[in-house]
Structure formats: C-alpha cells, structure tokens
Amino acid sequence: MTTLLWLQSGGCGGCTLSLLGAESPHLWQRLAAAGIELLWHPSLSDGGAQTLPQLLQQLIAGERPLDLLCIEGAVVNGPRGSGRFHLLGGSKRPMRDWIADLAPIAGSVVAIGSCSAFGGIPAAGGNPAEVSGLGWQGEAAGGLLHEGFLSRSGLPVINIAGCPTHPDWISVTLQQLAEGTLTRGDLDSLNRPCSYSDHLVHHGCPRNEYYEYKASALDHAELGCLMENLGCLGTQASADCNLRLWNGTGSCLRGGYACINCTSPGFEAPGHPFLQTAKISGIPVGLPIDMPKAWFVALASLAKAATPRRLSKNARSDHIMIKPERSGE
Amino acid sequence: MTTRRVVPFNRVEGDLELRLKLVEGVVASAQVVAPLYRGFEQLLQGQQAADALVFVPRICGICSVAQSHAAAAALAALAGGESPANGRRVSRIVLATENLADHLTHFYLFFMPDFARSDYRHQPWYEAISHRFRAQQGAGSGAWLQARAQLMQVMGILAGKWPHTLGLQPGGVTRAVTAEEKVRLQTLLYSFRTFIEEELFAADLEQVVALESDDALQQWRQERERGDFGQFLTVAAALSLEKMGQIMLPQLSFGAYATAGGHFFRQGVAEGEAVRPVEDQAIGEDLSHCWLPPHSSPQHPFHGVTQPGLEENPDGYSWCKAPRLGGRAVEVGAIARQRVDGQPLLQDLYRRDGSSVYSRVVARLIEVARITVALEQWIAAIDPAQPFYRPLILPPEGTAVGAVEAARGSLGHWLRVGQGRIENYQIIAPTTWNFSPRDGAGVPGALEQALAGTVVGDRGEDAPAIAHIVRSFDPCMVCTVH
After folding, report:
1. Which of A197, A220, A246 is where one domain is finished?
2. Which of A149, A172, A197 is the last residue of a domain?
3. Do A90 and B48 count as a contact with CB atoms less than 8 A apart?
4. Kind of pairing between the strands at B409-418 and B322-325
5. How confident is the model at residue A50 (pLDDT cuts 50, 70, 90)?
6. Which residue of B15, B59, B61 is in closest CB contact with A17?
7. The overall pTM is greater than 0.90
8. What is the pLDDT at residue A143?
9. Contact yes or no for A85 and B150 at CB 8 A
C-alpha cells in the first residue's frame, strides 16, 4: 500500500469537497484501485484513537513510511512571519513548521489547489495572512520550500493547481505517483501535471463558434463569446475544463461565466474586475498566449465582418433565436 | 481531580481545538478554539464591489454557494433591484442543492462514524452501524458518495461547477435553463429522492414530512427494520442522545429560500414558545475573548473591524469573534430554522429536551425531506421562456446586508462601498454564532454551553460524547473565522 497524509492549512477545504464529487467510481473505490492508504485526512479519517500531532511525530521520526504528502490550502506565515495565524490543533506549533518537517521525508509532495501551489486567493488584497505556496510564491519559484526542492522521489512539489481542483486531476495524479509512473516530463513549467495543463480551457468550449466570429456577449446570461467583454481568459488558461467536465456536464463557460484562469499563479489579482475584459483602444489586452497580436486583430476584424446573422443575434440572447439552417444563397 | 485537556478535532470542516476542564469525570467548562486566520475581511477591502463574488465563495469549500448567495443578495440590495423570478428560483435551487449535500455529507461522513468507534463494540447495534458508517469504508458512506456525486450534477447544469461558482449574480443567474435541461434536473431529483427513500428513510418522503411528534417518530421507527435514519434513531434511544449536549438558547433564522411571499422556512427568533422578528440592529460582535484587538464595546457588523494587532489580546483564546443578539448568545442551524418555522416534530422534541444531539440531527434529516419535496416543485416552476437575468447597476456608494440561511444556519454579509470599491465587508457565519468564545460578560457560546456538564468518566476527553456533541452542530470552521 502507498501511504498518504493529507493536511489542510490556509484554504477553504473546497478541493477536498470537489474530490468527494468524484463520479463513477466514487472516491473510496478510486483510492482502493490506486492502492492508497489514507493515514490521515482532516475530513475523512476516524481520528478517534490517535491525535494528529502524535502521528506526525511518528512519521518525522521515521517510525512509519510516508509516501505521499498532500497539502491543501496556502502556507500561512503571518502574523509577522510567526506562523501563529495557523497553529495545528493540539500542538501549539505553526502548521507551516510541521509541513517543513514533513516535506523532506515524504516520497512525493503534492500541492492540492492553487493556494498550496502558489498562494492563491488568500494572497489577494495585500496578503493579510502572509501566505505562500509550498514551492512557489505567486509566479516566483521558492515558497515555503527552497527553489530547488526535490522530494525523495526526485520530483519537485507537484502543483495540482485550480480553484478548486477537478476530482480527476487529483485522483489520476495520485494513482500515477502510487504506481511510480509520473516523471518530471509529465509536469509543465509550473510543475502542474501536463495531463490537464496541456490543454486550454478554450478547448471544447461550447461557445467556440461565437469566438471564431467574435460574436460576443455584452452581459450575463447571453450565449455569445465571453472573451471580448466579460473577462474570459479561457484562451490563456491551462486546464481541460471544457473537455473533462465538472459535476456531470458543467464548466465555468457552460455555467455562463468567464474562465478566471484559476490554475495560474496570480489569478487572484488580475488588475481589472474579474468579469470585465481589460482593453486598450478597444482591443482586449489578454490575447491568446501564442498568437501574434497583429494576426489576431486582423483575423478578428475579418471574422466580425463575416459573422452570420444567426451568431450575432444569438450571441446577445439567452436562448437560441435563429437556428442553424442553410441560407438561401 | 481537575485536569485540563487540549483536544484537536477532525471530521469537521476546517480546524478546531477544544480546551476542556474536567472535574471528577465531568466537563466543568469548555473553550472552543478556532486556530486558523486567513484574513478574508481584510483582503476584501479595496476590491471592486462585484468582485466579492469571486472571493467570498472561496471562504468555504462546503458552504460556497451560501456565501455567493449572501454576497449576491447584498449586492442586489445595494443596487436596489431584484432579479427575475426565474433567477431567484434557480439561485434557490442551487442553494438548496448545496444544503442537501451538506446535511447528508455531515450525517454519513462526519457524524455517524463516531458510533462505529470501538467504544461501542459491545452494543447490540454495533455491527450494523459499523458496516454502514465506518470511516472511509462504510457501505452507507460509499452509497452516499455515489448519490452525492449524482445530485451535484444539478450544479453542473445550473452553476457550471461546485464549489466556487460565479453563476449567482445580483441580477439573477448567468445562464438560462432550457426545457431539455429542466427534464434532466427532474430526473436527477427523482434519483436523489429514490436514494433517500430507499437508503436513508426506508419510507416515502411524504410520510417523513408528516411525522409530528416524538411518539409518532418512535412508533414509525419500530415499524421498519432498515434505513439509516432508523439506525440513528435506534442508537439515539440506546444512548439517550436527547440528554446529551442540551442547550436552550434563543434560536435565530434569517429565513431560508426567499420566495415571492417571504421565505420557505420563516425568519425569526424563537425563544420558548414565542417567535419574534429578527432585529438587525441588535446584532453585535464582541472581541473580548478573541485574539483580535478588542473593541471597547460590541460592534454592529457595519462598524466591525477585523485587523489583527501587534500583540494578541491576552484574554483571547480563538480567532472567532463572539456575535451576540441583543447581548445574548444564540443558536443557529437546522434546529433553529425548523423551530422558527414551527415544524411540529421539532417543536415537540424541543419542548421535551431542548436542543440536543438528538434534536439537532433529527432537524437536519427532516429538513432533507422537506427541501427535497420543495426542490421538485421549484424545478417544475422554472419557465424556460422567461428571463433568468436582469442587469442591475451597482451604485458607487452605499451599504447593504445579505442575510441568508446556509446549511449550518444564519449567514450574514454586511457591506459598505465607496467609489465603487469595498470599504468594509463583515461576515458572520453560522458557526461563528454556535462556536463563539465567551463575550465580555463571560457568557460562553452555544457549543461551550452544550459541553459543560457532560459526563465523560474515565475516558476523559476521549469520551465519545464529546465527539457527538461537537459534531452534532455540524461546524464549519473555515466559515467561522474566514
């Protein structure tokens, strides 16, 4: 069996709650299939007989092997670097210090969610709790753990970023780690698993036809593309949300609201209202990551000129007004 | 003999620690410690008002939609507008779905596994309970995970994803629902009803909703051999859970599921047999035993300050503030909601033994039945031909309140905006009420009161009664301090 210890710090628990939504098979079966034994999970373990500080001491002393260390939530360093904003219950010791002791002895260290990867939401608004990620501080390498940190398995901290994370991103990555099949080459430049970060949220977006013709929504509940006006970063965001759907058939775009690029460092402070597109001279600032700007502008103006009436009409409606039918020409 | 014990707690949402003073095998007093501070009220300051909808759901991964709902309500109040009926309906369905999932996640994953502890291995009911509810292995918890994942497909259709949707906006919801999607929602609800009728209640929901007294409930239990609710009732009778963790505090509900004519579960404050209106101005937060620098007097949340100081308050023992209503500690949650609403079974249970481990859990499960029946009607009422959203313009200045009921009880957002940006954003979450520390008069919060007097015997802080009492409140610690 592969042993797994899951701890939470400066987060909301939403990645765990998302993981509980794993569909067919459910979470217990996925863990069993991966041969993973949960030593401790704050929401799931019995926790009756043994307290967590005792277990952590045993692991640090090497009395029990620790294969996988999952940290959910940001590392909390405040106030003034003391770590006292999060003392582990029953220990009087900052959670940060426990994590720092555990990381070097773990086979692999996994940051669950954008908080533990990069700092995430609690790093917004001046970062009042002085949070960081495990291996990163926002976009800079080096968080709680030093920049070149490698766990016993030789891998850096694996950043399963997202706010929250998709259940599959976690269960698939953990199973690969348990099998020993995840390599450095399976991680992107931010150490996120390529299994989901090789895609853009744009891939599989049901609004793609509107995007192609720049038939844009102007307000919520409209069917058009959300990039031009409503803040959508799906063409820049690394994730497979529109290919691997959420809660059955969902995704942010399918829910009618913008992708806010929650798998990326710094997403919490975009510098503009989240659901409004930042523009300079009417042109969105954030264009597709690897497309020359001049080409984008040229193609966009051409596409706008060629937009079928069906799309321009439907883009501004909350339901399909004009059906796709062969035109009379 | 007097001993002092520090007890960390898991299987609650977030971090929790108890400090117990035990005298001769009895809890003489308890302090409830919320050990994590993240500073949401600080990081919201200076943000664009509408961006609150990105931040507040991320306070809590389990009450995420409730936080969105409260923020959207506050922003709608700020704009002085209302969303179309479909928008209100879909928001209500999304919130109700979260609340159903939370109630049963609490029951199957957080609360019931404590009865599968080895302390109870000699009880006649142990084998059945252990088979069904043992942590991470119980057949019941597995069945619930499967049913829960399917129920959450309602979120996939209506809210894009759960947790952390941006689908709930002040002007309604960000997508219309088609006739085809409405049918899928109805099918999902049918399947959910099947799960709770077969696995949880082993009875038709209409039968459960019609139970009006403890006698009727006990009679009903004896008529059936299966069902997880029935198993709980058997354990409750064997362990006298109605005498465990008893309190009789005023009970607050902001009113759940706003409808055209008011709320599906009424708003009010229940005390004894009387229900009185909620007075917003009577709410104040006391910092005397919080690690934050104390105010000279309790502050209404419009004037609340959340700013950790250079030194922690020496009298503090938690990051949780102590909200009080008219200076008094109150209880919130399903039991409060159902009492305020005048639900006959819960009224009867409360008259007999007050709020207890037993009545708090029964209240949640009765709510599951009531909400499911209502959800079916709300889904049926969706009109795909009518609008789901109406643009509302947020004014650059103003104050507003968003007061809703989350699964765990009353959730309030108090918002002040200037030049389009958030100047102050104060939040009182359900567990802030229930797990508050003492106030300036030394009056403990609801859980602290419920723990005092508990007989623990030789087992001390490991006595299962402590676990039952704490978890009977279904605490959400990440909401508590935020």
Report:
1. A197
2. A197
3. no
4. unpaired
5. low
6. B61
7. yes
8. 95
9. no
